[in-house]
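Support request, please re-run this one:
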Amino acid sequence: MATHDRDRHPHQVQVHTIQHQRYDQGGNKSSLFPQQGPSKSKVLAVMALLPVGGILLGLAGITLVGSMIGLALATPVFIIFSPVIIPAVLTIGLAVAGFLTSGTFGLTGLSSLSFLVNSLRQATGTVPEQIDYAKRRVQDMVDYTGQKTKEVGQTIQDKAHEIGPEGQVHGGAKEGRGART
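Re-run finished. Output below.
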């Protein structure tokens, strides 16, 4: 039934043009497409760039044609000399890879040696400070040991005076080597 209605009433499409308008800052109506033409600077830019673009496009075409002719002429030469060219290309490629690898290893070695030299320079810069600190510590220890030795010597001397020359303590009791019971 839907197809039956379509056959009886053909549809027509009507196109309505709508004039889009916008308002500029002053509140005046202006259309989306300005009625004035391109500026003088745009016209001059197109006039200057059109020949340059055409020349560059022509040179690109000439280069493409030259490359195709060169490839067409060189293909038989490559096929004839391929038993020689392929090993030669491989040899040259490996030699270049070897030189690049050697250079990379050399730069890595130099940078590691540079790092070591800088580390040693930094360590050498702090060694005199460490030596001075160690000297002060040893001097302090010597002073402390000397003071303790004097104190122990004074204590021994005081004990020796208490015992006396005959090995007796001045308190009256006999002690020491000379007294036997």
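The CA atoms of residues 83 and 167 lie 115 Å apart. The chain has three helices and two strands.
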